Amino acid sequence: MRVGCLGPKGTFTEEATRRYFVEEDVEWSLFPSILDTLSALAEKEVDRVVVPIENSIEGSVTMTLDSLALHEDLFVEAEIIMPIRQNLLAVTGTKREEIREIWSHPQALAQCRHYIHHMGAAVKNFESTAAAAAKVAESGRTDIAAIGTELAAQNNGLVVLHAGIQDVPDNFTRFIVVRRAGKTFTSTERTILQLQFEFDQPGVLASVLNVFAGLQLNLSHIQSRPTRKKLGTYQFFLEVEAGWQDERMQKAISIVKTYGHQVRVLGTMNRHYVM
């Protein structure tokens, strides 16, 4: 199996991917961004990819949601939950009090927002935590640091100045395993839907949510994103605690479509914990 994930080597996504596919015979590919990762799957360069979708501190990874909406031939088949321990990485000889700038992925920086604030450091965004670590190592500077994994420190010859710097100790990220659509669905416990309204009027969202409530379907996550068609218009991503094959789920989708709205099943999945 050809599996791709967000790289370079040493990202949390790579760690989650390798733990999930530990018993598989895998040919690995690493990509520089979430968009590149999902595009590679759409273009059949790989058979599966893993990307982050939500963090317990910072919330949804909007790049993943937007990319899933962009590629209509992709389908989520599983979910991975992994604890995240953020670390301050720097070249040997760096003193914490002399750090003036911290580099990392926007999600990692946000997960350590209060820590960075107390340091009084500026921030710089990178496509991944591992890419930031590599650039810090390449620079040789002692006035900058990266936030990332211990593996990224090892891979790039950096030292861990401070471990576990995330603002909340119990920090978890959800990753999704994505494949191309068209294969038979297996029995699952959760479904992701993309919803777009055909008309805008007061109470339209509430009317849709009432359909799920009336069928005793719990919505564990609701996220709005711009449609990119017109300012002030939004699409919604719903996560429902029921498999796509559940009769209630089928009925809910049918009713919402009867209202004239667009509903797309982005995936149906089970949850897997890796430690």
From TrEMBL:
The keyword Methyltransferase does not apply. The keyword Lyase applies. Pfam families: ACT (PF01842), PDT (PF00800). Keywords: Amino-acid biosynthesis, Aromatic amino acid biosynthesis, Lyase, Phenylalanine biosynthesis. One of its GO terms (biological process) is L-phenylalanine biosynthetic process. It comes from the Bacteria. Its EC number is 4.2.1.51. CDD domains: ACT_CM-PDT, PBP2_Sa-PDT_like. Residues 193-270 form the ACT domain. Pathway: Amino-acid biosynthesis; L-phenylalanine biosynthesis; phenylpyruvate from prephenate: step 1/1. One of its GO terms (cellular component) is cytoplasm. One of its GO terms (molecular function) is prephenate dehydratase activity. It catalyses: prephenate + H(+) = 3-phenylpyruvate + CO2 + H2O. Residues 2-180 form the Prephenate dehydratase domain. This is Prephenate dehydratase. It comes from Tumebacillus flagellatus. The lineage of its organism: Bacteria, Bacillati, Bacillota, Bacilli, Bacillales.
